[in-house]
Amino acid sequence: MSTSIQTLIENNRRWAAETERLRPGYFQELAQQQTPKYLWIGCSDSRVPANQITGLEPGEVFVHRNVANVVVHSDLNALSVIQFAVEYLKVEHILVVGHYGCGGVLATLRGARVGLADNWLRHVHDVKMRHRKRLDHLPVAVQEDVLCEMNVIEQVGNVALTNVLQDAWARGQNVSVHGWCYGLKDGLVKDLGVSMSNREEVMPIFRSALKRYPRAET
């Protein structure tokens, strides 16, 4: 076993021992159940850890991550996570969290090829093309941040329009969807103002959010 991997195992042993020392019975209690109120749908980027950012303990947030925090109706992985979280764990909040400086978003804007992931990033490219009149007139640095935000807003809409959320709201279940963008440079999240708690709110909130990014003056 390589030294670097052995170091991780040793770190784990120290962490587990220290946690048990400070909180006797912690792992036994945690093993009995998970009752999170939150589902985090975020980017796979290693600099965006859900628990640390939100100050939550293990067991308090259910997490799904993929490149560029994309949610599409053909992704059975993401949809299965959402269904399990909503119907079985009864989460009350779904957080779609992007981050500024996202490599997937930057590759999309710059037309960079990254390999197999290019196919996945077509979803972000579609967001860029749909809203190009709100993007193209902006300075490049601003485009990068705005597309990160627009991508989150689009994915919030996608989550809200899944059968899982639509059915949950139809039966009166208390669950909301929110959109955030995380700053790597300051560690702070920005609430993008796209919280949706029922079917009637989805389209008005979605349209209102996009209007914050004006089209170029003609």
TrEMBL record:
Family stated for the protein in its record: Belongs to the beta-class carbonic anhydrase family.
Protein name: Carbonic anhydrase
SUPFAM superfamilies registered for this protein in UniProt: beta-carbonic anhydrase, cab
InterPro entries: Carbonic_anhydrase (IPR001765), Carbonic_anhydrase_CS (IPR015892), Carbonic_anhydrase_sf (IPR036874)
CDD domains: beta_CA_cladeA (cd00883)
Reaction catalysis annotation: hydrogencarbonate + H(+) = CO2 + H2O
Pfam family name, one: Pro_CA
Uppermost EC category: lyase
EC number: 4.2.1.1
Gene3D superfamilies on file: Carbonic anhydrase (3.40.1050.10)
Organism the protein comes from: Hydrogenophaga luteola
Cofactor: Zn(2+)
Presence of keyword Metal-binding: yes
Taxonomy of the source species: Bacteria, Pseudomonadati, Pseudomonadota, Betaproteobacteria, Burkholderiales
SMART domains, per the entry: Pro_CA
PROSITE patterns: PROK_CO2_ANHYDRASE_1, PROK_CO2_ANHYDRASE_2
The entry's keywords: Lyase, Metal-binding, Zinc
Top-rank taxon: Bacteria
Signal sequence coordinates: none
Function: Reversible hydration of carbon dioxide.
Keyword Lyase: yes
